[in-house]
Design a protein that fits this description.
Layout lengths: L1 H5 L6 H24 L5 H39 L1 H16 L2 H4 L6 H66 L11 H10 L3 H10 L22 E5 L14 E5 L4 E3 L4 E8 L5 E8 L2 E8 L1 E2 L6 E2 L4 E4 L7 H9 L8 E9 L2 E3 L9
Antiparallel strand pairs: 1-2, 2-10, 3-9, 4-5, 4-8, 5-6, 6-10, 7-9, 10-11
Helix pairs in contact: 2-3, 2-6, 3-6, 3-9
């Protein structure tokens, strides 16, 4: 595929570059998955592998979408120029059938032949340019069609590899025992706090008031430029109302199904589990009196009291990963609505929520 795309890279730089990068990324991810079992820190290795698969699949989908758009553009252009192309092909066929000596003679004699030669010398470069442009477009369409035909196999391997990496990651996290522990969870106290809290605000305030008796929380990560916990785009900003007119003091991130959620910095797990109507929630403490709230995951990882290094997995988004045919249909139609899951992110300092932009690069 790379050789095929490279032959027309000058004509379709963006689609080919994206697809080639995706193929390389998926190959690297496959190699990383094979080597992850031998790493001392399997969780870190598998986390990087899952992220590599996610990046590769995102890049591949984008490359296929661009290729489909480019193919439609060329085909529409050729259809609009059908009369011009037909005339050009007719001229070329006529010239191809005529004997070479006749092309050099004119019935009116030497003067007519000279004049005809001058005309041909002026017309030939433009005619050749049209021929070259037509050939380039036809070759590009053929390459793009071949890319679409071959994409199913690459997508299938990428989706299967990503699913295998997620499964292995979940198993590795459940077996992990080497993380430092700030304190041991009081299950009864946590259950009472969940039962008595009727809002996230009340629950978060209760967490901050809870006495853990452990070591001090980790130092605050540099605020203001932290990466988002999941690969996606901001759907709603801080205190921006939704369709029902409800505004929340956090941001809503649109993500793809089964996307991996990681902690942006070193933090202690203060809570993990279902909460109110937020679904599965993980609350992290990166510094004293600071809480990061992540809500809406299908699966959550980690144990309360653990101090997680930056980049540690804390959960997976829900949803069903679309089949290969659905992805190819989506890219062919130019649809970009594959980010069907939402992660809610809220930052609290003391007893009050603050704009997540003070900590995260939400723009």
């Amino acid at each position: 595929m790379c050789c095929l795309l490279g032959s027309v890279a000058s004509a379709q730089t963006d689609p080919s570059a994206a697809a080639i990068a995706a193929a390389d990324r998926l190959e690297e991810a496959s190699a990383a998955l094979a080597a992850a079992d031998g790493r001392s820190d399997r969780v870190a290795a598998l986390t990087q592998t899952v992220q590599a698969y996610e990046d590769g699949l995102v890049t591949l989908r984008d490359g296929l979408r661009r290729a489909a758009i480019r193919q439609r553009t060329i085909e529409d252009d050729l259809a609009n120029r059908s009369d011009e192309v037909a005339r050009l092909l007719g001229v070329l066929q006529t010239m191809g059938r005529a004997p070479a000596p006749l092309l050099l003679l004119h019935p009116s004699g030497p003067t007519g032949t000279a004049r005809a030669g001058m005309i041909v010398s002026d017309v030939t470069p433009a005619l050749q340019a049209d021929v070259d442009a037509l050939r380039t477009q036809l070759e590009e369409v053929a390459a793009l069609r071949d890319l679409q035909n071959r994409a199913a196999d690459l997508l299938g391997k990428g989706l299967a590899g990503a699913q295998e990496a997620r499964t292995k990651l979940s198993a590795a996290i459940s077996d992990r025992t080497d993380l430092p522990q700030r304190y041991t969870e009081d299950a009864v106290q946590t259950a009472l706090l969940v039962a008595s809290a009727d809002t996230l605000d009340a629950f978060a305030s209760g967490l901050l008031r809870a006495v853990d008796g452990g070591a001090a929380p980790p130092d605050a990560t540099t605020a203001g430029g932290l990466a988002l916990p999941v690969q996606g785009t901001i759907l709603r900003g801080y205190e921006q109302a939704d369709a029902a007119g409800i505004a929340r003091p956090g941001v809503l991130i649109a993500a793809r199904p089964r996307a991996l959620v990681t902690t942006p910095g070193v933090a202690t797990v203060r809570y993990r589990g279902p909460l109110l109507d937020y679904g599965n929630v993980t609350i992290l403490e990166p510094a004293a009196d600071v809480l990061w709230v992540f809500a809406g995951m299908a699966e959550v990882f980690g144990e309360v009291g653990q101090v997680l290094p930056a980049g540690s997995p804390i959960g997976l988004m829900g949803g069903e990963i679309p089949a290969v045919d659905a992805i190819l249909s989506e890219t062919a139609q130019g649809v970009t609505g594959s980010q069907t899951q939402t992660l809610y992110l809220e930052v609290r300092e003391g007893q009050s929520p603050v704009n997540p932009a003070t900590w995260f690069a939400v723009e």
